[in-house]
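so ive been stuck on this for like two days lol. basically i have the seq below and the ligand is zinc ion, smiles is in there too. i just want the complex predicted, nothing fancy, no docking runs or whatever. if the output looks off dont worry ill sanity check it later, just need somthing to start from for the group meeting slides
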Amino acid sequence: MDMQEHAIEFNVVYHINPYPATLRKDLDEIAQVCDGVYIPVTEAMLLEAPNVIRRAVDFAQEVDLVVMFALSGFGNILGGGRHASIFTASHPEYNCITSNGRAIPMSCPNKPAVRSYFQWVVEDLMTKYGPAGLLAYLPSWSLPSHFGSLEPGETPCRCADCKAAYRGWASGDMPDHDTPETASFRAQTMAALLDCFSSAIKSRGDHLIASVCLAPNDSLEFKKALASVRDLDAFGVTAYWRPNSDITQREYISRHVGEAVGIARESGKLAEAWICAFDQDARHESDAAHAARLCADMDVDILSAWSYRDYQSGAPLDKPSAGDPELVWQNLRRAYHELREGKEEEA
Ligand SMILES: [Zn+2]
């Protein structure tokens, strides 16, 4: 960060449009109000669309946007959308084993091969595309809901690697049910995976950015463990308020973004607030813009919205209560513009 009082960096998530003319027009428009763009990247995209990704990075860099990749679905450990990991499907031998003894479609973060895979992904993306950095989006020990759910009391993971690591960590055998210690163990070992990810980024250059964002309902212990990863630069939370929440948008953002800022400051990281700008309801087309204004008042360093023109892959587009995506974006765009103008006046 520079010496400016408090220069917030503004970003939006952009799902790549495959048509070059539209892609260029969209990125031009984003560059008018944003410092950077997050491009969601999945395992399937790496196989199916390397040239499309390349073109998006090139066009974005041409208009001086900082390009970050938001990694979704990798190993079915990272979240965001209903993506299925090809790595996990191809390597059932690395799956998590639950306390009921069943394998679930989620690669175990404690397996050396899974950590190596994450390091390989970082190497591959940085070498091929040269983004400014990578975001691990919603890493979690929870089985993604599109793969089913665990039985009551059933928990991941009791594979041989987890049991061995637990023994070394706790000087005792892993209990067959969840305890405060197993929760701590899972927080620490997910942090170890994030450490592999972040140090692989930094090994390619100190200026490259390693980021993570977590969900509001992740435990405080989990958040603090991940935020304290040495090579991590930015810690964020998805403060995705919805109108059906039992608290107001202001309360929700104040609680969750406030907590994230505190954790980030404690760990010496940049604080990032994630704004919900997808799948918005009718008559709520200014919620995302309002969220941006609320977050900007909260000492955050980075403000990022998911996503451009209210889009979320997999969200139902024919929802009767759906809002106007164009209006969502125009309101958000105006909020970004005004907040950035304010920023420049203070400089
Ligand atoms: Zn395991």
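The chain has one domain: 9-346. DSSP finds eleven helices and ten strands in the chain.
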